[in-house]
Amino acid sequence: MKTSKSKERSKKAEKKQKNILEMLKSHGAKIYEDLDNGQFPKFSIPSRSVSNIVYDKKLRQYILGNNAALRSARNSSQLRSFTQLMWLAFFANRLTQEKKSSTLRDVYYSSQAFAIEFEDQSESDNIIVDLEAVTSKPREDFHIFPEERSSIFGDLNIEYTIPGYEGKSMNLSNHPDGYSIGPSLTTAELVDTSAEIVIAIEKGGLFTRFVEEQIDKKFKSIIINTGGQAPRSTRTLLKRLHDEMRLPVIVLTDGDVYGEHIAMVIKSGSANAAHLRELTVPDAKWIGVWATDIEKYKLPTIPMTESDIKRCYDLQKDPRYQDGVWKKELDVFLRIKRKAELEAFSKYGLTNITDKYLPQKLELAKSL
Amino acid sequence: MSSIKEKFNQISPSEFFYSNRDLAGFSNPTRSLYTAVREFVENSLDACDQKGILPDVHLTIKAVDPEKSDPKPYILTVKDNGPGIDAEHIPLAFGTVLYGSKFGLKQARGVFGLGATMAILYGQITTNKPVIVKSSVDGKTQNMFELLLDIQKNKPVILKHTTKEVSKKGLSVSICLEGDYSKAGNKIRDYVYETSLITPYASITFDDSKGQKFSHPRFVKNMPSPPTIIRPHPHGIDVERIRRMIVESQFEIPTIDDAMIEKVRKDLGLSKKNLGFTAIMEKAKKKWKTLPRQVRVVIALMSFLKMDFEKLNKIKIEDIDMPNKKLFYWDFGDSQSKSVEMNPDSQYYKQLTNTVQGEPLTTFLTKRFQRIGPTTAIKFAEFARFKPEKRMGTMTNQELVNLSDSLQKFEDFLAPDPSCLAPLGEEPLEKGIRKFFNPDFVAVVQRPASAYSGFPFIIEMGIAYGGEIKTGGPHVYRYANRIPLLYDEGSDVVLKVSNDTDWGRYKIKGEPPFIIVSHICSTRIPYKTAGKENVADRPEIERELRLALQYLSRKLAAYMSKRGQAEMAKKRANLYAKYIPLIAEFCTELAGKKKEPNYKKILQEENAIESKPVKEENTIEN
Fold first, then answer.
1. Which residues contact A184 (CB under 8 A, 6 or more apart)?
2. How confident is the model at residue A3 (pLDDT cuts 50, 70, 90)?
3. pTM for this one?
């Protein structure tokens, strides 16, 4: 039974890899043909300009519109980035073929071996986004991952698919520091779990506390530390936990406008990744800390900074903040102009947040 | 200068300049050596220009005692192939201050002799050595003088005068003066170098005190057409000048002596014949048109005296009272004063009036000034509220002041005549710039003549870019009447105009290899100081400079954009050569091919035109 399942899984991974490789090959063949015919190669790339990013209500995320730009090797101002992108496709092709992983930083350094110049890592990061836009595939599909790792803890059995670990399984509650969410975990098969909910927390400190307080057992949950704004690998894993394991996802952040937006990005993505569609958990719920909680729980607060307030006004223009709890809390933040951190609950005892606040909020979440 | 002469004629001009030598650029040993070089070189060039001789000028500076430290005495010698100076004039020309100044208006480097005499004076003051002048006007005999200036008497003292045979014309002046060549050397070398740029038809050599030789052979064989001497423009005149012109225009009543009578008889063809009074008058009437003025005056007097030559010999004219129409004379025979009435209707009365009271205003204007016709003269008289026939000799001081003011204010005079100017010309200027800077780009322009305060001027300008020009430009080379201006750059009008220019607009950025050569030609350059180093910002001159610079800058901008396009095309070709092979390499592996595509065709395509992207890409910032 298990072998056949495992075979099936690896077959699925094989197929995905084959698709990616074929797509890259077809892009390469087109460029090759142009050159061979004595023509400057060119390709079209969806425009990522602000005017071309639209909110799709049905998908509940930002997507790119129909505008596209032509990249041509004839245009000397595009020639450099054209070549960089060609190299990246070539490099991604090698990574995928050889099932090797790389990071954003690693890509930046690897370029030097091929006489490809990037001013800095942000230039190479930008070219990686270009590749995603052209292929409509996230960089993880090309085995390129970010450096920053968030972590996961809870009763979840996985089975690795990365070379050398194929078929090997692991339970994610075995190590109390949690497991970092990297390429091997993002690509692993999710086998089974006893948990009934996923709790994503903004901060490492609270994550450790939750593990210590055995929140995973008390609330039958998988705990994830997003480490601030959730990296895309973490968002991918959240989506898979929701879609494949049918687990609801709730998000717990600091009581400020940035916390609210961390939750929103998990739920409906970021404008930065409007060219990708598999990173959102539209059903995810933000349970706190709300602006109204600050008043309700009499939390110690600090005043909002000018940039906090500006951020509030910016978000008020975002179509996703036009109704429900999102709009309501944003308005209250703007009214009270104060904010509170998750740690604020320790004023009422170190376990106050896990003993009192969390149960109430989880209960409330059911009705959201 | 004229007013200075008037004021200081009372004391010796030599004394005046002795105590005010700073004004003329002899303030310290460094500056003095430089100024002395300038004065002599410019005199030589002016002399050659005037006679249409292609100048060969040799400048030598030798230390009297090379071991001494600066400042120390130097012997400065300037030798030319010019017309030379007649032996009889040499002592006065080099041994007095303010000798030989001219009243004619034309462009010249300097008022002849003034600065040179200052240099001689300075040399004598500092070293007590004479000036040595060698001159040959005929190419056969050379006169050599050793002269000192008697400062108090403003008179030359001839120490030595010899003659010898030579084979070439020309002048050589040698003075001994206190100088500082170690400090002045740079400026003097620059001066010689820059002079040869604006005087491309001259060969200039320079042997300096350190044994270095600098040679600037001529590279243009044609001299620019020499300026003509012209009459002044009414806008450029003052009361003093008018007074001087009236004196010039008035004729004295000739002394009627034996020689004069002999001349009158000769001109009438009556040398051997004795005719009576009536016959003489008839003869004169017939010959009137051919008679010189003096003779006409004598005839006119005879007509009223009713005398023949014999009687005329026995009297002396005492006074001619035009308003009362009376002629007084002394009769030697009767030994008493007598008078006769003058008939105002007689044509001879008019002749005498002209002589005694000067010309009528309108004649004065049309004859003594440039570009004034009878119509304008009458219009002006009306404007100035003078009778057109007002005699110049009868003007009071106040009337002269009114006349001078009105001449300044009247706006219907034609612009000054530029024929007295001698610009270098566009072609020689361009040639010079090319030779001196070997640039990638040159443009020159000669503006049409313009005028300020009645003085005509012409702006010539050239700009050059790239090539061997050093960066850090624009470097401005300023010239006025073919003199390079090296000091006091900061306050000069040319610098002002250049600094006001937004070079970015003309595609010139950073520290460009870029020069501007500006030449102002005028009968009077409005120098800010007597040292002739910077030009004041007269609005008319500033405007012409600006127009010239704008015109040239536009040409340069056109060149720069072409140059930019060529550079861009080259840059683009380089980019293709760099990146296309890489693209080929990567897509070959990506497409799963073994052999690289044949991309050579693209690289060979020379006229690959940049295509515009379909849409500007604005990547979102976080």
1. A101, A160, A162, A165
2. low
3. 0.56
